[in-house]
Amino acid sequence: xxxxxxxxxxxSNAGEAKNAKKPFKMSGREKRRLLLLLCFLSIxxxxxxxxxxxxxxxxxxxxxxxxxxxxxxxxxDIGYNIxxxxxxxxxxxxxxxxxxIDGTKNHYTNAAYGINAGYTxxxxxxxxxxxxxxxxxxxxxKQDWKYNYYDGSVYAHLGKSKVKPSIGIGVRHxxxxxxxxxxxxxxxxxxxxxxxx
Length: 197
Known about the structure:
Porin, eight-stranded antiparallel barrel, 21% helix, 54% strand, globular
């Protein structure tokens, strides 16, 4: 009886050892969910804080007027209000790029990271309007389409509450870093929510 117990105990240890050898890896979907969870936690922190030095923005943006290449992004900006009008943000994006070249359709999903800085040039009870410039990179070696981007945009944050709906328009240049696709410049529209702006 003791021997049976020993065998089952050793067997369970062997099973645990097999499981312990597997490294922890996150899928693309899990990474996007984690990014959204972190954004929502940041939003909750900023929404209930008294001081408005920290800012959080969540937007979805896209370009629908083009046939050859249409990019769509879900982004989260977490930033700091340096002064009453000047700010900097770090940005994380979950992106999908839709291509239709010579009748062949293709798409790529990426995670992109970037930084932007802006200035709020209009502040009143109806809205705050800022202009910003930024750059970013998908920073992943195994992506089929490698690129970095540069953009300029104008955002309006409506109302005077802590949580504001926001809309934006801008232009982004996608600088392709491999020969699969050429460089593209696209106008985009963005909608979302902002906190601490």
